[in-house]
Every structure is written in C-alpha cells, then in structure tokens.
C-alpha cells in the first residue's frame, strides 16, 4: 500500500534464571543464584546488576564485548561472581554464608547499550531453611504402585478376553 509504512522494533535481549524461579538454601551455607542472558545482535558495554528485594544493589558488573570477561563495578562483600561470557553469557553469583534475613527476591537486571539500552530482568526467590528435610515419598510410591497394578490387570484381562474369544471362534469354525 503506498504511503503506509510499518516499523517494528524487536529487542533480542532475554534474561533467565533457569527452569525454576525458587531456590532453597541451608542457613550458613553458600547458594548459587543463577542468571544467563542471550542476545541475537550481540552486546557492547553491557551492564548487569543484582538487586535484593528490588531496592538493595548487591552486585554490579560490566562487560565490554563478547571477547572480554565481565569486570566488577561494585558489590556486597558476601557476593561472589561465578559467571563467564566465554560460551554462554552467564552472570550468576554466589551468596556466601546465607542467613535467614537473606530470604527474599533477587533480581538479575541487564542493560545492553548495543540494543538502544534495552533493559530486561529475571527474578529468583530465595528461601532459607534451618535444615534440609528429606521428603517422604511413601504415599506417592503406593499410589503409583496401585495405579500401575490396576493398569497391568486391565491389560491382562483384555489379553485373556482376546485369547478366549480367539479359541471360541476357532472351535466354532471347526464344527
């Protein structure tokens, strides 16, 4: 159509904390807070920041380009960067000596200058427990066993029915 122009702006930056957005940590242990990012057009002077409960900045880093490793801008002394940009763009951190007061929302925030300063983030929730509890799966195993047994019996019954009907048909054909 003459005179009609369509402009589409698509930012290719995506930030992820993995398959689950909840992490459980044992009190006084170290916990990994995962975060990765992907971008179709690359990145330049990318800034990533981790926030605790949306307000407290606990880590800020910068990556010049794909060929360079991230470098620290500022951080909480209990936070250690464990990511790398060689291979997958990993900007994960480890929170050391977790305390109950560390439970809450952690947001990995990424800003890419190459994408007109597009900003994206992903959130992970940390729960701190006094001890790890082993889950009792006995009831689940019983239910699965009973359902599996019933399905097996049903298949066996259908197989016996077929054999009996086959025998009856053969004996009737023989008469």
Automatic annotation (TrEMBL):
InterPro entries: Ig-like_dom, Ig-like_dom_sf, Ig-like_fold, Ig_sub, Ig_V-set, Myelin_P0-rel
Any GO BP annotation: regulation of ventricular cardiac muscle cell membrane repolarization
Key words of the record: Disulfide bond, Glycoprotein, Immunoglobulin domain, Membrane, Signal, Transmembrane, Transmembrane helix
Matching PROSITE patterns: IG_LIKE
Topology versus the membrane: Single-pass type I membrane protein
Record field: transmembrane: 139-160
Gene Ontology cellular component list: voltage-gated sodium channel complex
Predominant location: membrane
UniProt xrefs under SUPFAM superfamilies: Immunoglobulin
Domain Ig-like span(s) in chain numbering: 2-125
Compartments, as annotated in UniProt: Membrane
Molecular-function annotations in GO: sodium channel regulator activity; transmembrane transporter binding
Record-given protein name: SCN4B protein
Annotated gene: Scn4b
